[in-house]
Amino acid sequence: SEQLIKTRLAAALPDHGFVGEETGATNGTSPFVWYVDPLDGTMNYAHGLPFFSVSLALAHNGRSLLGVVYSPMLDECFYALAGEGAFVVQAGGEKRPLIPSPTTDLQASLLCTGYPHNRRLTGITNLPQTAVFLHAAQGIRRLGTAALELAYVAAGRLDGFWELRLSSWDYAAGALLVQEAGGRITQTNGTPYALAAELPLVASNGHIHEQMLAVLAEASR
User: Fold this and answer.
1) What is the spatial distance between Cα 21 and Cα 2, in angstroms, rounded to a whole number?
2) CA 57, 62, 63: angle at the middle one, nearest 5?
C-alpha cells in the first residue's frame, strides 16, 4: 500500500520528496515532502484488533501543512490544514471540528503511550516513565498506533500522550492535528519538535502539558 501511495504521489507531484516507513526516503527537487505510514499499528491489524491507521502528511521546508489520519475499521478520517483547524469526518459524512479535552488536573487525566519496537536492542523501555505516570494520572492506555493516539488527543478522547522513540512518519500528521485543534506537542524535555528521524514526544490538551513534562523529568532522574 505504501508503494501504491508513493506511485500515485510521484505521478501527480513528481518534484515532491517522500519519506515512508517501508520504502525509506526519496529526495525531490522541491521543498515539499510527504511523510507516509500506510499501516500504523501493524501488530493490531495482524491480530484482528480495530486500532490501526493510515497516516499521511505534507511538509514544506520541514513544516507540516497537511495531516491526515484515517481509521479504516472505525471509518473516521481526521485531518488538519495549517492555519485552518482540525476536523474529523465520521461514518455517514458528518464533519466536526476537533476540540481537545478541558481536563486541567493530571490526576484526573487519561493518558496513552507506546513502547519502542526496538527496545530489546536499545534498552529504552518507557517503563520508568510509565511507572511514575501510573501514580500521577487517573489512567493509562496503549492503543498501539501513535498516529491515531495523537488524533485522539486532538479530539479530546485522550488528555495526553507520550512516547520515547517516534519516527517522522509516525507523528508528522498527528502532530499537526494536535496543534491545529489547539493542543500542544513538544519533545519530552519541553523543546519544540521538528520532523526528524526519531524523537521522544509528548502531546496534550495543553492544560496538563507542564504537569506531564514534570513527570517525565522526574522519571529520567
Assistant:
1) 8
2) 65
Distance in Å from the first CA to the final CA of the chain: 42
Pair (124, 185) in one structural domain: yes
Distance CA 49, CA 51 (A): 6
Q: Is the CB of residue 145 less than 8 Å from the CB of residue 162?
A: no
The pLDDT, as a whole number, for residue 71 is: 98
Q: CB neighbours (10 Å) of residue 75?
A: 11
- The structure's pTM equals 0.95
Residue type for 49, please? L
- Buried b / exposed e over 30-46, threshold 16 CB at 10 Å, is eebbbbbbbbbbeebbe
User: Are 48 and 146 contained in the same domain?
Assistant: no
Name residue 135's amino acid.
Answer: H
Q: Which three cell numbers stand for residue 125?
A: 523501555
How far does Cα 68 stand from its chain's mean position?
A: 10
Is there a contact between 153 and 159 (Cβ–Cβ < 8 Å)?
A: yes
pLDDT tens digits, 159-171? 999 999 999 999 9
Classify 52 as helix, strand or coil. coil
Q: Are strands 160-167 and 110-113 parallel, antiparallel or unpaired?
A: parallel
Lowest mean pLDDT among 92-101, 111-120, 136-145, 175-184: 111-120
The pLDDT confidence band at residue 216, using thresholds 50, 70 and 90, is very high
Quote the domain boundaries for residue 156.
Answer: 106-219
Task: Identify whether the C-beta of residue 30 lies closer than 8 Å to the C-beta of residue 22.
Answer: no
Same domain, 113 and 199: yes
Q: What is the CATH number of the domain that holds 183?
A: 3.40.190.80
